What we know:
Strand content: 15-25%
Largest sheet: 8 strands, parallel, barrel
EC number: 2.4.1.211
Helix content: 25-40%
CATH architecture of the largest domain: Alpha-Beta Barrel
Shape: globular
Structural class: alpha/beta
CATH topology of the largest domain: TIM Barrel
Strand order of the largest sheet: 1-2-3-13-16-17-18-19
CATH class of the largest domain: Alpha Beta
GO molecular function: 1,3-beta-galactosyl-N-acetylhexosamine phosphorylase activity
Keywords: Glycosyltransferase, Transferase
Protein name: 1,3-beta-galactosyl-N-acetylhexosamine phosphorylase
Number of domains: 3
CATH superfamily of the largest domain: Glycosidases
Distance between the termini: 27 Å
Amino acid sequence: MNKGRVTIPTDDNFIKETLEIAEKWGADGIRDCDGFKLPREIKGLAERIYSTYFVARGDNEWAEANREELQQTYLMTKHHVAVENKLTIKIMDGYFAEQVEPDTYHDIKTWWEVIDRTTNEVVPTENWTYSEESGEVTINNVSKWHEYTVSFLAYCIWDPTQMYNHITNNWGDKPHEMPFDARKPKTNKHIIEAMYNWLDEHPESNVVRFTTFFYHFTLVFNDLAKEKFVDWFGYSSSVSPEALDEFEKVKGYRLRPEDIIDQGYYNSPFRVPSKAFLDYIDFQQQFVAENVKKLVDVVHEAGREAMMFLGDNWIGTEPYGKYFESIGLDGVVGSVGGGATLRMISDIPGVKYTEGRFLPYFFPDTFYEGNDPTIEARDNWITARRAIMRKPVDRIGYGGYLSLAYKFPKFVEYIESVCDEFREIYDNIDNSKPYCGLKVGVLNCFGKLRSWQTHMVAHALWYKQIYTYLGIIESLSGMSLDVEFISFDDIKQNGVPSDIDVIINAGDAGTSFSGGEKWLDKEIVTTLRGWIYNGGGFVGVGEPSAVLEGGHFFQLAEALGVDKELGFSLSTDKYFKTPVEKHFITEDVVEPFDFGESQKNVYSKSKDTEIICYENGDLLMSANRYGKGRAVYIAGLPYSIQNTRILMRSCFYAAGKEDEMKKWYADNLNCEVSAYLETKKYAVVNNSNEEQTTLVYDGNGNSVQMTLDPCEIKWINMV
């Protein structure tokens, strides 16, 4: 068995058992966990010793002495209807008082905002007052039956990740860690000095695992200590008067609280981002990168490695942003929920290595008597493994408390096999790029900035409204396709990249992923129409190019061959409802179609539209020729092995390259082939828990039959 490329956690009084597991799993790295610090004697017991370091929390002595330098967040109250000429709003109603408290240190008339949500007008400051004693804003001269909200600046008095861990692990009287703000001058100086001190006090560690840096993603709890609002991409807890004043100097205009509050949506990634919000992202990323680099330089001066955890306080360090590589980090580690999140980590540019933290987390909510954590571990590994075959992380690991996992021998044995298989995959791929039959561009408002991160809310958690689309990214993560994420602004400024074969646009109307108002930009829409007409391929899922304008809901209706009925054109007859008898896209379909949440009222515009699936009066899948190009419409595409094949066939059909699909290809839906031409090897992978037999096609289209055991990978040398 090879060793290395694996990191394991440990905890109190568990060193002997930790070394036992390290030997069994071939681990060369040992890490601590939130709530536990490594003992000095750990030094030398593993090649890599990771110590977690919190830049902006974990020093309550500093936080208590400088409470005016705590981090801040913008919050909005509930909507309140005025039933008389005066309205009183208790601003903390619904918020957790142990996590946030109103900021009255700074001038509330400057930094707060009361809005008439019926008219969207800002209420003059002279018309409202705030009582610290009662925690209420009183608004005078209101308009009866109008709705009002208060946007207020608050201090963050308990870090939300530590709060979550505190509650989950029942830490009782453990101090609540208060986050402080690196943009405040005193604190900025303090965190650099603290970094030097910490390194002196932790000689046992040779890898500093920053968890993470300055600003936490938006995570606000309600008055029951339950999550109230969570946005893994949220910037609303990175605000402060100092930041907003500096923004005005740098960008030349002043932000309102509403630019952050955004009607209470807080600039969710599903919102089409405003120019102000994109400017604020850019502004904060530049500040964070410049200041994180100072910390990384200190770590390097001490002869240690600097690693960033992709989560918690990661705001401002988005790894596909334009400033990230300038930081000089050695590595990035992130939590792996499946293939999409694996690729989100493994594709990160500008670092020496990447590491995936696999599930389950060794916490008592999973590791308890009567539960089998092996089930979650197997599902997590098999799902992520598809993506590893395309672009592996350099290391894998686990988090939590090893003493809990140790009590489950079956789990320990299974993870041993995972570690061995990962090393086998990594060594066989040997940094070579796998064969890609096509290049696909995923088009949305964020493009490269949010590569492999579309339709995510709280990292990789499931939501009813997103699985229909997140499945596309999950499918792509393990396909023999080259994938690039492009934005509408990229199209406007530079056109469609010359090497793109197919563009995928997927999402609900009005969201940043479908595009919303971006489709009203004549340069964008005409560029894409022309590109498809001249031979490009387009795959639209859900409500692609959707915005009501010019007699269409789908602005690419003529290219797609379909549009969506909103009730405005019911007087126009729709004659075309007959599906084709068979189609290239659905040749591998063996089960009933699954369109997820699907769509209603999509209809064919022409007799030439190839209707592939029509059920209960709704067109659910179709294809259309548009000039020299082709477009495919699908009502929804949640992740499954069948939908993965449908998407692959849709891409090859849209590109007009059907004859090129069966290269390094398996005809069994449960199997996939990855070919590494540089190393002259290819792998046939069984993604199921059952034995599978498949025809395997090589790069010249020749086929051979193979049988694979459950979950097996066969490595074959090319002739």
